[in-house]
């Protein structure tokens, strides 16, 4: 049995205790903090991992289909901020973020009464996918719409799905320490000027991140951010 997307929650960094131990023939995994996760297999043996821990901070990443820069093509940034607004209304705190042309990173805090994380991310993808397709249609970008349509699996197409807008999996790491949170904030904020990206001359000048909130003590004009020290 081949397991795809091995374990989305696995964190190889030494300061994080979220290494995993295989139990029960690979179907049950356990972290050092005794959180358990049941792995559910689809017909192609893909793994779906649910993060059930509440009153916790997560570093979350999800990506556009085939890494196509759909956020930039459709100028979706206002819509993502709207999603943040919906999170804040449910007392799910946004602690930091960066929006890249084809993916996003964010730090969010899940209160005790929050839905499971996979539900939050699934709803976010649906919320954004609808708007992305709408804007592509308004722009008569039929070539790209056809490409997204070609990515829909036959089984999902039978259920009415028309476009594959995001990669199916997402990444979520629980933040166990202040050092880990600071590390992820720095990674997010420097992302626009790191590697192949050259989106700004200075990371503080990039408009779609929480860098100025943390490094310059400026309020974010687009969304409500909660400092991680206030959790």
UniProtKB/TrEMBL annotation:
It comes from the Bacteria. Gene3D superfamilies: Transposase IS200-like. InterPro entries: RAYT_transposase, Transposase_17_sf. This is Transposase. The lineage of its organism: Bacteria, Pseudomonadati, Bacteroidota, Cytophagia, Cytophagales.
